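ARCHIVE CARD
CATEGORY: sequence design from structure
SOURCE FIELD: tokenized fold
FIELD CONTENT:
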């Protein structure tokens, strides 16, 4: 398979990673990918593109089985309001198709916020820049390459 901007970024930063392909299902989310790979959904990290009250984009990295408290995120980020972007805006900001968004190799450099407990996992699975494609790595590599702001904004899924 051809490289994506994400895998090009990972190689340029000497990140060790494994490649994992699965059958993408529209609106299937991390439940589909975790089932396909046989890993806990908690270990699959979703990349969410959101924006603040000024429509400035940012990325939030969250466990697959958790939601983001946008209210807590806004408070911890020093913003008035944070909400998910519309799919067209998310694609424009990140350069990735929704369902294939990676925090690595985005079109523009975006601020990254990461749920702190992701660092407690031995290995995570995160989108590699294409639908149906995850990369596995040590979570510390995100800290080393993206310098995210660590936050505590996880909520249990309904």
């Amino acid at each position: 398979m051809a490289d994506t901007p994400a895998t090009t970024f990972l190689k340029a930063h000497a990140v060790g990673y494994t490649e994992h392909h699965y059958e993408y299902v529209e609106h299937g989310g991390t439940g589909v990918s975790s089932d396909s790979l046989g890993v806990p959904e908690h270990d699959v990290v979703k990349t969410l593109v959101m924006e603040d009250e000024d429509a400035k984009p940012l990325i939030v990295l969250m466990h697959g089985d958790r939601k983001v408290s946008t209210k807590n995120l806004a408070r911890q980020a020093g913003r008035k309001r944070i909400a998910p972007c519309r799919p067209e805006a998310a694609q424009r900001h990140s350069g990735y198709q929704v369902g294939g968004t990676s925090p690595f190799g985005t079109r523009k450099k975006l601020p990254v916020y990461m749920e702190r407990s992701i660092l407690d996992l031995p290995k995570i699975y995160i989108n590699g820049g294409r639908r149906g494609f995850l990369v596995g790595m040590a979570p510390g590599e995100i800290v080393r390459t993206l310098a995210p702001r660590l936050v505590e904004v996880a909520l249990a899924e309904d």
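CARD ANNOTATION: The mean pLDDT is 96. Residues 115 and 151 are 5 Å apart (CA to CA).
SHELF: design records, drawer C
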